[in-house]
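Continuing the series of single-chain predictions for the mutant panel. This is the parent chain; the variants come on the following pages.
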Amino acid sequence: MCNLYRMTSGNAEIANLFGRPVVSGANFPAEVYPGYSGLVVEGDSVRTMSWGFPLVLKSKKTGAPLKPNPVNNTREDKLHTAFWRDSFAKRRCLIPVTAWAEAEGAKGRMTRTWYSLPEQDVFAVAGVWRPTSEWGDAYSMVMVDGCEMMGDVHDRMPTILAHEDWSRWIDGPPEEAFTLCQVWEGPLAVDRTPEPWFNASARTASDARPTLL
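Parent structure:
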């Protein structure tokens, strides 16, 4: 599952790659965490949304609603369940990504391992989105089984879409889009870094706990 990714290309490059203008004032950080704003390709433009559908749970002690958690990933085998069904059927999107990170190592000493596509500054990950009363428009990444190159780190990974499948994911019927939820068979670039997985200073803007459904 993905709880951190990079998007470091400029707006002009993104607009050229996806053939859509980036909405004016679309600000986003280079490293995106659950609850942060990230770029999303949807409709006839590229704009920012909040990463993660809000999930509101109740306190076991008082029964009162708790602060929402962002459900930033969804398994492909859950897309037809109640939480995701309407978004998958009606509101699919592309998420521009430079690289995504997974935690590697022993608990308490985990470091960041980054995955990207060789010789590609940006690639597209399958996503779904919906309007929310809590955070405005929000999106979530669709996850599939991890490929062999990352099997020693995590058993799930983002659904990477080949360029020729972008329009099929966004505009095709749900049954056709679902066939695109496949394990990535192409090469991956792997960058194992000494950087600690948890960077407190980078997370001060969001104390939400990411969730996978």
